[in-house]
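Comment thread on ticket #2218

A.B. wrote:
> Attaching the input chain for the structure job we discussed in standup.
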Amino acid sequence: MWRAAASRCAGGAIRQLSAVASPTAAGTQRKLPLDEGDWSYYKEWWGEDDGPGDGAHTVFRRHSEHGNGVVSVVAYPASQPASDKWPLMERWLQERNSRIYPESTGADQFKILGYQWRVMRFNDHTRQSTAKVMACYRSPGDRALYSMQQPHCLAVPYVKSMVSAGLAALPCCSYDLPQAVSGENTMKILCIGHGGGSIPLFLASKFRGAAVHIVEIDPVVVSASVESMGFPASSAKGLSAHSMQPADGDELFWGGIHDRLFLHITDAEDFIVSDSNVYDIVFIDAYDGKDIFPHKLWDVDGAFLKNLEKKVHPVHGTVVVNLHSDSELSSPDVEDEGHFDSILPMGKYVSQVCRAYKQHFGLAFTAASPWLCNITLVVCRDNAMLSGARPGRSGRDFVLGKLLSSSSMVEQALDLPFPCLQYVKNGFTLVE
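C.D. wrote:
> Ran it. Output below, let me know if you need it in another format.
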């Protein structure tokens, strides 16, 4: 969930972060792959602040019984990849199909229909998630429509901020991230809040050793992601709504990536009590149709945080939380409520959320998401993060230095199409 500063500040510095290549070694620079989720494409899918806008068409619309109002998915044409690149994907699909169905003898031919942005909205207004989806069909005879979310494309800057800051923190706490990428080590990941599924799908595609558990309370949101945003249908457990994807779609597209995803339709507080896993990293992005981050997910004395603390690895365990606010307030206890009339519902609580998570995990820092009113909160064990600190050096400088040192390794290990380092240091603040 996010709100944009795009209307007031996206014009001037829109390519400031995405155009920068980060250093990999002395005197060299890593050439970044094409970032199809670059913020410069936002006009293709942004629409209007009060609705989808011209050129859009609704592909999903259903009422939620879990506080999200009307959940809809709106489609917009995407300019990338250009049509001259489609044959490469068609050949890849045909090769995949031949391995799955050796008896096909090359008769099946895949044809790409195009690429679209798919934007999930709550109550026709709040943009909840954005994903790029490829649509194709298999001929001759079989005209069933296949859709595949593009896992490498993270279109919203706050998602890149969460991924960058969270994954950069793990190696700083002595976690061997490259071994999880290669599959030599198992990496247990928990995502609370599903949306279109871009974060869990990205992580499952990048880490061969990943087991990604996703918790989403609203079955309508899950249905929207599966039916209209190209998320693997087989990962969802207990989904009553039918999937628009053909039965062999997951095996054809994902080649095992979908086997790393476990989507649970349940309440996060209930899940964390009964779950037996110990997680290396947890991503939390859970907002309802009124832009509210549920209080039980940040109540310092509540069951959720007490249980989450036990379910995160005691040495390198890291938790990443998406917060959005029009205002960074030094004091959340302002008595004049009129001061908050023009800011987001969560604005006056951001500082309290940060302190609550810090109290349970030890060390907390925030990074500001460019162009949007979002803050990435990262919490981890302070004894691991501050290991090796020298007397006299400020905690902020030491933590930031470690994060920046690990950022280039994260970029290379995951072959990121965006500069991790820039997202980590943007508005970096150590929570006191």
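A.B. wrote:
> Thanks. Noting for the ticket: The chain has 14 helices and 16 strands.
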